[in-house]
Prior knowledge:
The chain is α/β, with parallel strands linked by helices. It is 40% helix and 12% strand.
Amino acid sequence: MIIDAHCHVWPDEIARKVLADRPVGLDPVHDGTLDGLRRTMDAAGIDLAMTLAVANVGKNVWRTNQFIGKVDRSRFIPFGTVHPDLSVDENLRALWDNGVVGVKLHPLFQSVAFADVRTREILIALAENDIPVIAHVGSGGDAHQNERGAPKHFHAMLAEVEGLRLVAAHYGGYQVLDEAEQWSVGTDVHLETSWPPSMGTLPQERIRNIIRRHGADRVVYGSDWPMTDPATEIAAIKALGLTAEEERGILGGNLARLLRIDPAATV
């Protein structure tokens, strides 16, 4: 079983507008729609995908979660959005009422900072309600955006939020792998493998060492669709020279365990 932990999707008309602006300076390789993702998954042999939806401002949280909560649960796992401009109760209600099972935090596109007490209060509430989170950690934007998602702040936040099922995207430090190794690798989180434009641009030996230092059983595959091609990213993982057990875990087994998915139910 292969599960992609990192797929951004939007309603069809919004996807065209978002990707026309080339978010974070990358060239998208797919269209950002649910139908487009399904076709990509079928071509790459992916069984399930976490579909991520992010609201840049608080007023859009409800309708964003309403959209993502309606995805086909046989192929998609809906991860929705929260925002520090809303109260903790308002954020939780927007998730529960729309049947959203997890949350994506994105410091580049939201006013979400790991050092912000409001963010920590939301994360504590998510942990108390056993709602899993995937967070962008690292750079990719301007200096202010990068500071919001800095690995050092991510590390400090972890000390105040206990019991959270948390996935740190981009090995815990996009574009700042030295900082990721210092602050994210070895912490009590799952690391995710995406690195646009491709994980294949990273030194294989270094990534293999990071995976084993962190624990291969706590690393999960993600593509960052539509900014990368999932089949290419799967091939990059298979090229690392990991054991068959490590590879199976990263490509799906570890995430299935984290999200409590029964592999037999997806067959």
